Amino acid sequence: MLSLPNLIWLRSFEAASRLGSFTAAGSELGLTQAAVSTHISALETQLGHQLLERTTRKVALTASGKAYLPSVRKALQELATSTEGLFGSRTSGTVTIRAPISEAALIVAPALVTFRRQHPDLDIRLLSAIWADTALETGIDIEIRLGTGTWPGVSAEPLGMETIVPVCHPDLARRIAEPSDLVDQPRIHILGFDDHWPRYFEACDLKPPGKTSGITVDTSLAAVEHAAVGGGIALLLGKVARRLQANGRLAVPLDVSLPSVRSHYLLHREGGGPSNAATQTVESWLRELFG
């Protein structure tokens, strides 16, 4: 039988590490500063390693603490998600959304500011994922996925067709008047979307350059950040590009768009029961947001 640390000690360690203070951790957990300190000292004694360095004003992770914290956070999150999925949330207005990391950061998170003003009674949890799982996880109320809509064990509701458009820094966009101007510019490639640049050049009646130019990243979010500092041109989904252009971070230099073979879908479990009122409200909002 594995010797597991006390769960209360682990919660105190996670909170103190995240907040940088025993006092703040105690306030969040409903404990005194002394109780949090005692819990962490007991945890360190059991493990035989110091996890936090104490100073007069704050605490900082040691090397052992930095190595241990990700596992603690993951375990606590999985336990919380499983508990809510099996027994329900104590807050009836809590809705958990999971979306691809780029859509979560670039589409959903910014729009949540206005949505929360309109629905202050709802508690939203936004989780992000780099790769789509094959099955819906317990504890996820709403899932947005990008793909072709064919995932086993779920019903996928399409949220509108997608296009692919080029984006870049506004200064670079001023130097691009026609598709041929893209040939000599550094291009940002996104893993999993390797066909985008060849297809885009083909749609513009241009021969794809023989040599790969630019860099390769693993998410659209990384591509956006690189393009935003003038690192090159990326091909992004139109829904993401429109929002980035509206806030001035990036520009769409050409009117030529390419139909995407992937679209966004709202997922439901096959045979699942009707969602509650809070989830239905969020689903309606997401349909408008991605529509």
From TrEMBL:
InterPro entries with a match to the protein in the record: LysR-type_TF_proteobact-type (IPR058163), LysR_HTH_N (IPR000847), LysR_subst-bd (IPR005119), WH-like_DNA-bd_sf (IPR036388), WH_DNA-bd_sf (IPR036390)
Entry annotated with the keyword Cell division: no
UniProt-listed Pfam families: HTH_1, LysR_substrate
Domain of life: Bacteria
Keyword check for Transmembrane: no
UniProt domain HTH lysR-type: residue ranges: 5-62
Family annotation (PROSITE patterns): HTH_LYSR
Family listed: Belongs to the LysR transcriptional regulatory family.
This protein's UniProt keywords: DNA-binding, Transcription, Transcription regulation
Species per Swiss-Prot/TrEMBL record: Roseibium sediminicola
Protein name as it appears in the record: LysR substrate-binding domain-containing protein
